[in-house]
Write a structure and sequence with these properties.
The protein is mainly alpha-helical. The chain has helices at about 5-20, 25-40, 45-65. It has three helices and no strands.
């Protein structure tokens, strides 16, 4: 995974870990600030990058979640 994308995914993960807690809004603000910086540096559309990060986050969580096997069972 691209190191910059990985940093954004981890920032989003910090927000979800803190969800409902006192630091949740700060974590979300940190994620959006990182997203804005990355978009400005690489001249990307913010909405497209945010969607890509969210998709990659879901994939990352799915592969790291202990409840699911890393290889899907045969049908």
């Amino acid at each position: 995974m691209n190191p910059d994308l990985e940093a954004l995914v981890k920032a989003l993960d910090l927000y979800f870990q803190e969800l409902g807690g006192p630091e949740a809004e700060n974590r979300l603000a940190d994620f959006h600030a990182s997203l804005d910086i990355y978009c400005a540096l690489h001249k990307l559309d913010r909405n497209l990058l945010q969607r890509a990060v969210q998709l990659q986050y879901r994939r990352w969580r799915w592969t790291t979640d202990q409840r699911f096997p890393s290889i899907p069972p045969k049908a």
